[in-house]
């Protein structure tokens, strides 16, 4: 027993050194180089060896937003050195002919469905301030930003065409219905800040079910023990970010932890095999990485929220894409048309499509995701103004992927809808149990940042193996 305990302690220490020691090392590199190192995905081995004790599911559906050519990431986040002014700069019209929308340009709630839609309405209003109702308008992208903009302009009397690269509308709103007892979401699943926006009311009007979803999770150790949540990790995050707020320039969340001293939490194990440092790692994996989709070395300490969102979330169980159906049906949407080049001057715009076709219009609203702009998948002629290019370079793009698993019957022993793992490395540190929500033995797992990047191109078999190993703390005792 003593030897086993020593092995467990060594495993915990190695994990601590990986989490905090790497941060310290990068902090030293930052100081030595007087610049920020280019962060790389951490190569953590996928579980191999003995099969998982979790039974194999009957069905699996996964997302891989980082390698999706029409997304190249899940959502924007505040990167080190970026500021709200960068989002405002990206939202500025160019020559009164080209307008930008999408969640990365949102003045409020960037990274969200509500923020994306508001950005589309803002871009349409900007265009209306300089345009005439007999003009031809092209909207690039049939996500919620593009559809919102196009709908407002069509209702105002403009001749509007939406050009969409995919063979479906919705963009990163992606609802799957075939083969599942209830609709599942590869993109957003929740309505956040439901007391401050109207999305839940709109879903109710559409007859789409939404249900309250608690943010307080059940936390388990690798040994399947349910443990009470500790505030230590959240307190360390708040203290590190408060320290960063007093600094003369923005630093990464990673550096804020190290230089404020908040990374130096005790490694001493309690009776449950957990330490104070475990709870910091828990806060990092279940909140900071989940909300940004990024490494700590990439996240801005000035603009990363110190506290989690208010506990007023709703989970959408009737299909998020229904939010788009009526708008899309009333619009002229050209599918499977990839825009590769946009030329503009003070007289109009012209677009080149991937198949070689050309389109012309008086004005254009561009709603392609920030990741696509970063990768220069769309050529602009002339090149964009410096302020726009600087904004595109500065704002971060994070990755959060999901896996949905359907089982014949539950193998787990809890009715908690939200599961988390503490004290162990887990590719999928957050799981949603749909059984108490829909009555179906379906689980949704979330994977973010470097783990999502590492597994994005993995085979379904490798991806599923990682997911099943991450579920082992929740199996029922035998």
TrEMBL record:
InterPro entries linked to this entry: Amino_oxidase, FAD/NAD-bd_sf, Flavin_monoamine_oxidase
Record keyword Signal present: yes
SUPFAM superfamilies named in the record: FAD-linked reductases, C-terminal domain, FAD/NAD(P)-binding domain
Lineage top rank: taxon: Bacteria
The UniProt record lists the keyword Signal: yes
Signal peptide positions on this chain: 1-32
Residue span, Amine oxidase domain: 52-127, 144-472
A single MF term (Gene Ontology): oxidoreductase activity
The entry's keywords: Signal
UniProt cross-references to Pfam families, sorted A to Z: Amino_oxidase
PANTHER family per record: FLAVIN MONOAMINE OXIDASE (PTHR10742), LYSINE-SPECIFIC HISTONE DEMETHYLASE 2 (PTHR10742:SF410)
UniProt protein name: FAD-dependent oxidoreductase
Gene source species: Cryobacterium psychrophilum
